[in-house]
Write a structure and sequence with these properties.
The chain is an alpha+beta fold and 138 residues long. It has a single domain, classed as Beta Barrel (Elongation Factor Tu (Ef-tu), domain 3), CATH 2.40.30. The protein is built from 2 helices and 10 strands; from the N terminus they run ββββββαββαββ. The longest helix is centred in the middle third of the chain and has 21 residues, at 70-90.
């Protein structure tokens, strides 16, 4: 994992590394939403549990690219967009937050990132979703 605790690794790409320089400026760790499925009893009081499921985890992150110049920012933005496109095409792949370096989720980016916003140096929105909320300890 990169030296940047406020970055992430997705699809074996270290977004905090020198080729990307992405830093998370805001975002919260999502909680798993547990849903218990109950079946009412016929002509009786109460219900019977039919099991439980969990909803997907969704990280809504705001990120920035730490570039020293406009030309470096243009190069980094192109790198980030290409890497996110590859991660999206790969489907669910390993996702590790710098703040939680021992937890690996199977996740993918969803939605779009605004390249124009990234080029200005402003924070951009990035959504990562893990359909199965469990993680592997690495």
């Amino acid at each position: 994992m990169s030296a940047c605790a406020d970055s992430f690794k997705l699809n074996s790409v270290d977004y905090g590394g020198s080729s990307y320089k992405v830093h998370i400026v805001s975002g919260q760790m999502p909680w798993a939403d547990f849903r218990v499925h109950l079946q009412p009893l016929a002509q009786g009081d109460g219900s019977v549990s039919q099991g439980a499921t969990t909803a997907a985890l969704q990280w809504k992150l705001q990120c920035m690219i730490a570039a020293a110049s406009a030309s470096e920012r243009a190069t980094l933005v192109a790198n980030v967009i290409a890497a996110l496109a590859a991660a999206h095409a790969a489907g669910e792949t390993a996702f590790v937050l710098g703040r939680l370096p021992t937890r690996q989720y199977m996740a993918r980016p969803v939605g779009r990132v605004d390249g124009e916003e990234m080029l200005t140096g402003a924070a951009f929105d990035l959504t990562i979703i893990a359909p199965q909320p469990g993680y592997t300890t690495i």
